[in-house]
Amino acid sequence: MERSLAHIALFAALIAVLGLMPRIDLISGVPITLQTFGVMLAGTVLGAKRGFLAVLLFVVLGLIGLPIFSGGRGGLGVLAGPTVGYIIGFPITAFVAGWITERWRNVPVGVAATVASIIGPMVLLSVFGALGMAYILGKSFSEAYLLTLPFLAGDAIKAVLAGFVTQTLARLRPSVVTSRA
Prior knowledge:
The protein is an all-alpha fold. The protein has six helices and no strands. The protein has a single domain, classed as Arp2/3 complex 21 kDa subunit ARPC3 (Orthogonal Bundle), CATH 1.10.1760.20. It is globular, with a radius of gyration of 15 Å.
């Protein structure tokens, strides 16, 4: 139990730190950051339940005011901005990535983690992001979805890296990769 709590807290902290890395601001008001990489890893390494809880902890801490969202933002005000869909979608997409990684036991863990990161935090998160931007920016879903396209190339690289990191951890420290335990 203590080990699970420590992993959950560690991944919430990792996602927060990845938001402090230099970001690239786009015209949509949604920056490109490394936080989605942390969301991918939370799911693929910790599995569905623990990955969801790690990312949910991160989101709750940000919403109560800790400046851990991209650019050092925090508080409920972020829910009134164009990133709202991403913030809401983070825990759900970590769950999806973890669920896929857990279920695809007959596939090498690196491949399963890469595909899981593409389906969950890459594709599904784009839908959440577009829904949030459509609502906040007053655009149609199609118009808002076009605004998510600049993220896809970077997210594809992050998904491959998440697969590589998950595979490496599974080889070097198998007990850490609880998605395959």
